[in-house]
Every structure is written in structure tokens, then in C-alpha cells.
Amino acid sequence: MKSFTYERARTPAEAAASVAKIPGAKFLAGGTNLLDLMKLEIETPTHLVDVQDIGLDTIEDTAEGGLRIGALVSNTALASDKRVRRDYGVLSRAIVAGASGQLRNKATTAGNLLQRTRCSYFYDTNMACNKRQPGSGCAAIQGFSRQLAVIGTSDSCIATYPGDMAIALRVLDATIGTVKPDGATRTIPMADFHRLPGDTPQIDNVLERGELITHVDLPRPIGGQHFYKKVRDRASYAFALVSVAAVIQPDGKMRAAFGGMAPKPWRVEAAEAGLHEDRAAAMETIFAGARPTEENAFKIPLAQRALASVVAQTRS
Amino acid sequence: MNGKGELAVSRRGVIVGGTSAVALASLPATGQERVPAKAPAAIPVKFEVNGKPVELTLDTRTTLLDALREHLKLTGTKKGCDHGQCGACTVIVNGQRINSCLSLAVQHQGDKVKTIEGLGTPEKLHPMQAAFIKHDGYQCGYCTPGQICSAVAVLDEIRAGVPSHVQDDITARPSVNADELRERMSGNICRCGAYSNIAEAILETAGAKA
Ligand SMILES: Cc1cc2nc3c(=O)[nH]c(=O)nc-3n(C[C@H](O)[C@H](O)[C@H](O)COP(=O)(O)OP(=O)(O)OC[C@H]3O[C@@H](n4cnc5c(N)ncnc54)[C@H](O)[C@@H]3O)c2cc1C
Ligand code: SF4
Ligand code: FES
Ligand code: FES
3-state class of B53 per DSSP? Predict the structure, then answer.
């Protein structure tokens, strides 16, 4: 691991200003992803701004009837919250489907959103990887790509966004609140937060340098039955091959977002109306333009079956 | 575009590798010259371990795991993968289990850390330790301190109502059963495969307490 200096910020504004001011500085939340990558020298920050003392660790009711989740709320606390379990079950389910109990105790809401890909070539510093080292090439495209993305990819990167929580946040139309180093705040819809790789796969999301996530807002509850189905190589403690977050209403109308398929949570609202009438056709629209490799083409029928199994579970 | 198996090592990496395979393995292939290291940043860290206050001055890079093992000589906590993948390093911080390998010691100023040495002693075993012995919940024993710390915290998590992936009804209070324990313990890998005896030991401890 490269040497770095360390500070604890006391307020969100102080944290954002520190990271903006010091070249090579990064925020440190739980550390479960950043430290992992620092040990491999994939991330090499010169300075860490620990945000554990800046507050932002509560879940509050909003005036609109939704919830405001502080950026530092742990995955365990978020999944355990009574209001979340009652009104946003898909979110609790997605979180407890991810990582392990130990990791969820330390992982934060913001850190989870910002976790980097699990492409094994990204992790192997001997291999070409445009995301880790821009311009070096992509060893995955002609390599082992079984785990990797089928849609939203580019010629420079086919990595997935690996997380579970974000898939549920996408289906719930959550928004992300941030503060910039100059004190300006903004609200970013989940749909616009993670980026597709294009020819700059090193940039995962739309955050600017020093921009701190302060909270995630959930709109008022939408009812329905909530599901998170995760298909993986072992029953627990493994990343998704394919996952689906779905909210299904009593009349059969549904929302569905997919994980493990793309560089971001994959949801096509325009096709959702068709999902309860002609699911096969709607799924074709959702994954139109997919460019799977020979090794990961199985993900498209697997996503269809994952959604079919969720629909079969609905109680009338 | 690089194909399968093609290496992207820098020329410098290749030269170094020619003389020392170990150096190659630890060199990041950034293609950049390594600058001479500055004096590493060291800062004072104070926390409590097994009820006793400790004060250390540590390189910022020191993980909680290395602080416990290398600096405090509490070698009960084990290093398996050092990447959050095996659970051997599990300790209980402020009442919650975490992977001490994925946490910097400096993140724990003021925290209360409990390790396997603080749970019980050979003379006065924690009930979970006694149950692991009774049920043969180990073979080589390497994963065992992590398993036991994790198991003690799991029962607290169930009591506190933390939900799990195997619950049918996510709003319900979780119960103690073999499926729940297997799911909740999945962050602790056992290479010897003592899983069913581990599950029995935890079940018995839960029952004895209930
Ligand atoms: C073995 C293993 C298995 C895992 N399995 C899963 C899984 O199945 N599913 C899953 O979803 N995840 C999984 N994870 C990933 C885990 O969920 C993440 O590591 C965790 O959520 C990251 O949160 P953190 O708070 O520790 O982030 P950190 O590591 O502290 O930070 C991550 C990044 O976010 C930045 N950051 C943190 N907070 C802020 C903020 N407020 N504003 C701006 N930037 C910020 C940091 O600078 C850093 O770049 C796994 C991890 C491991 C090690
Ligand atoms: S798919 Fe993306 S992350 Fe994986 S090797 Fe290629 S560029 Fe790197
Ligand atoms: S050593 Fe920490 S999880 Fe393996
Ligand atoms: S007892 Fe040997 S690894 Fe678990």
C-alpha cells in the first residue's frame, strides 16, 4: 500500500473542501472497498479524509412522505430499519443479499453506491485494463467474460456495476443528494448517477472532484409486493451473475431493474408497461442492443427466468 | 486490444522480474518509475482492546488486524485473505462484528474492540467457545477465532432483529434456526469444512441462552 496522510473531517463542508484542496485525496467511509483496492495499489490516494464524524448517519421521514437516508448509514442499519422493511422491502432484501454480515456492518450507503467493479482483470495489476489504467486496453473482452456485462458496454470496457443496493434504489426512483467543495448542493436521479463506459471507462459516475454524497432520498412508498432475486454461483457471499429488483402491483403492473447485466443498474421504464402483458416482448425491448460475449450470452435468458420466477412468487 | 493471457508489464517490471520474481509480483504495472518513498505518515491511535486502554503510534497504513497481531501481540485473530473474503480476522467493535483486515487502525480512535482473547480464557470459556469444543466445530482451528467472534455477534444481531437473506417475510422478527445461521455465518469460510459442527455449536449456544 502507498503511504498516505489521514484526517478526520468534522462537517460535510470541511470534508468536501479537504478532498478538493489536496491533490490525490479521497473520502474514506467504511473502507471496505477503498482499502481492498489500496492494498493492491489499484487506488493510490495520497490523503484520506475520514468522514465517520460528519453526522449524516440517520434515516429521517421527509415532508413528501418518503425517507432521507444519510450517506453514513450502515448497510445493516438501513436494511434493519422498520420503515424500510415495511415500505421499501426491495431495498432491505437487496442489501441483505450482498456481501456478508461483517461487511454490511461497516459498509455505508454512499460507499456502497460507489463500490468499483469486480472485473477480475481490473483487480489483476498485471493485465491490461482501461478502467484501471486508461489506454492500456481491455483484457476482458477476449478473456474470461462470464461475469461481465451484456449491455451498455463499449469497445473499451465491458465491466458490470457489481452492487445490489443500487439496483433496488433504481427501481424505487431514489435520488442522490451531494454537496460540492464550494458549498453548492445538487440532486442526482439514480438513473443518471452511474455512467456507461464509452471511451472513458475510468469514470464510474457523475460526481465531481471533492463532491460528497450527503444522503439518498426515497420518494413516498409505492406499495406492491417487493422482490430482490439474486442468481449467483453460491447461495451466499457472492456477487450477482444476474439480479432483478421488482415491485409488482396487485393488477400485475410492475417495475423491474436488473443487476449484473450492465455498467449501471439497468432499467427501461418505457418497456415496463408491457411486462405484465407480454413479458417476453418487453424483455426483448429492455435488452435490445445487447452485445453479449459467447461466455455471457446466458445472462439474457437468465434475466428473463429470474423475473419469471419472481412473478410466479406473487400472491394474488 | 490485449487478448487472453497477455501481460501488460512495464519494461522496468520485466527487468526487475528478471532478477527477482518476488519483486515482480509486488510491482504494480503502472509503467511509472517508483519515486523514493517519503517517511511514512505515523499518528497516535488510542482505543480499548478487551477492556484495556491501548495507545500506539502507527503508520497510517496499519490495519486494525495488524495492530492487534503485530503491535499488541494478540495473535488469536487470524489473517486469512486480508481482503474481506474469509472472515478469519473477524473481531467485535462497539458490539458489531467487522473484518479487521478491511479497516485501518486509525479509523478506530476511541472504539471498544473485542477479540477472541477477550471473550473467554482457557479457565473460563465463553459458552460459544465451550460449544465449539463440545461439537468439534473445527479441525485445524485457523478460522475458529473468527467463527466464534462472528457467531457471538450473530446471536446479538438476531436478538436485535437484523433481517437476513433467507427470511421469507422481511418484516418479521428473525428466528434462530440452521438456515438462518448458515446464511448469517457465510462471511466465515472454513477450509476444513467444519460447517455442520459449527452450526450445531451455535444452535446449542442459542438454545442454552434462550
Ligand atoms: C468479499 C466482499 C464481498 C462483497 N460482496 C458484495 C455483494 O455481494 N454485493 C454488494 O453490493 N457489495 C458487495 N461487496 C462490496 C461492499 O458492499 C462495499 O465494499 C461497501 O458497500 C463499500 O462501502 P464503504 O462504506 O466501506 O466504502 P469505502 O470503501 O469507504 O468507499 C468506497 C468509495 O466511495 C467513496 N466515498 C465514500 N463515502 C463517500 C461520500 N459520502 N461521498 C463521496 N464519496 C464517498 C470513497 O472515496 C471510495 O472511493 C463486497 C465486498 C467484499 C470485500
Ligand atoms: S472490462 Fe473494464 S474493468 Fe474489466 S478489464 Fe476491461 S476495461 Fe478493465
Ligand atoms: S483476513 Fe479479513 S476477511 Fe480474510
Ligand atoms: S477449522 Fe480449519 S479452516 Fe476452519
Answer: strand
Q: Which long-range contacts (CB under 8 A, 24 or more apart) does B12-21 make?
A: none
Q: What is the ipTM, given to two decimal places? A: 0.97
Question: How many Cβ atoms from other residues are within 10 Å of residue B210's Cβ?
Answer: 8
Could you tell me which of A188, A244, A247 has the C-alpha nearest to residue A216? Answer: A188
Distance CA A66, CA A248 (A): 19
Q: Which residues contact B169 (CB under 8 A, 6 or more apart)?
A: none
Please report, as a single letter, which amino acid is at residue B205. Answer: T
* Tens of pLDDT, residues A119-168: 999 999 999 999 999 999 999 999 999 999 999 999 999 999 999 999 99
Q: What is the pTM of this model?
A: 0.93
Contact between B113 and B93 under an 8 Å Cβ cutoff? The reply is yes
Q: Please give the distance, rounded to the nearest whole angstrom, from the Cα atom of residue B144 to the centre of ligand 4.
A: 6
Amino acid at A292: P
**A40: nearest CA in chain B?**
B28
**Digit-coded pLDDT (tens) for B136-186:** 999 999 999 999 999 999 999 999 999 999 999 999 999 999 999 999 999
Side chain identity at B138, as an amino acid letter? Y
Q: Determine the Cα–Cα distance for residues A136 and A189; give it in Å rounded to an integer.
A: 32
Ligand 2 pocket check for A94: Cβ under 6 Å: no
* CA distance to A44, A77, B23, per residue, from A115 (Å): 15, 18, 29
Q: Is the Cβ atom of B79 under 6 angstroms away from ligand 3? A: yes
Sign, CA dihedral B9-B11-B12-B16, equals: positive
Residues of B in contact with A82 (CB under 8 A): 171
